[in-house]
Amino acid sequence: MFGGWKALSFVSGVVVSVLGLTFSFPAISNSAEYVGNSGCKCHMGKGCFEGEEYKERLHSNTWEKRLKGTPDAENPECLKCHATAYGEKIAEAGKKYLPNVQCEACHGAGSEYKKLKENYQGKGKDAFKELLKKDPLEARKVQYDAGLIVAGINGPATVKEQCLRCHWESKDDKNKCPKTDKIMDYKEYFKKDDHRDEDEVDIAIKKLSPEEKKKWAAILPKDEILNTPLKPKKKE
Ligand code: HEC
Ligand code: HEC
Ligand code: HEC
């Protein structure tokens, strides 16, 4: 009995210090709510690469174009793939889902991330940008700590896994759209949907020593497909 307790207290000592670390992350992501693309307005502005790419994709129209005005507009079966955050915590009162496949469908609930960008450490709207210039990797870390997910880095182990939540590679897949027989050609689909451009973080990653790579392992790409060349930046 006593021995058991001793063992336990030893274990709980470790657990406490581990908890101290892990606790802050679930606490943040649990309270995060879906804010919708209007909450991502920095990315949606004119000339912003990922926003422009996104608007060209059908993801930005999956509800508008396919469900709106049909008997299936509110059908949960369809909403899980053609909409965002169905059944999740949404910031705007009374909303059961957000139309279309929005940024947060793949990047996670954004309310904490949004706060961070608008007011990092309570220092106002330029504080995050300053951090990004000074210490790009730390900037990425704090974004991820605030709940931002990027598949192949800190979310689903591979990008493909994320795509397969709503796409399929075989016509006989159970998790497929009842309205189409199209299948995903992953490489082609990825190329189309890829919206990375070279930013401060990518440049900083290229310069990392093997030592530093170990230090930042948690925020570096693990999925091979993320090592493919970035799309060239469009001239503004
Ligand atoms: C498992 C995810 C999933 C579910 C569930 C789902 N869809 Fe889809 N739907 C898709 C995807 C992905 C596509 C596009 C496929 C592609 O282009 O490769 C699509 C395409 C469509 C299209 C266009 C078909 C065409 O001719 O190109 C319509 C219409 C549609 N869905 C309606 C619905 C309706 C209505 C429901 C509910 C009854 C539904 N979907 C459920 C994922 C889904
Ligand atoms: C269908 C899933 C999906 C949607 C929707 C989506 N993203 Fe992404 N995003 C990804 C994945 C996967 C990556 C990494 C690989 C890539 O670019 O495809 C990524 C990468 C990014 C990056 C680049 C990070 C870097 O390393 O440069 C930014 C910025 C980004 N997304 C912002 C957005 C914004 C803003 C929206 C909405 C307008 C959005 N994403 C919508 C899945 C998605
Ligand atoms: C939350 C569900 C969801 C996820 C996750 C998702 N998709 Fe889609 N995607 C759809 C739906 C729904 C359509 C159908 C659009 C339509 O036809 O209305 C679609 C269509 C597409 C299309 C064809 C239309 C176009 O704009 O060219 C591509 C390409 C695509 N998705 C790529 C991807 C990739 C790559 C991933 C993984 C990074 C991914 N999708 C993840 C739901 C999703």
UniProtKB/TrEMBL annotation:
The keyword NADP does not apply. It comes from the Bacteria. SUPFAM superfamilies: Multiheme cytochromes. InterPro entries: Cyt_c-552/4, Cyt_c-like_dom, Multihaem_cyt_sf. Residues 89-194 form the Cytochrome c domain. GO terms for molecular function: electron transfer activity; heme binding; metal ion binding. It holds the Pfam family Cytochrome_C554. Keywords: Heme, Iron, Metal-binding. This is Cytochrome c domain-containing protein. It comes from Candidatus Brocadia sapporoensis.
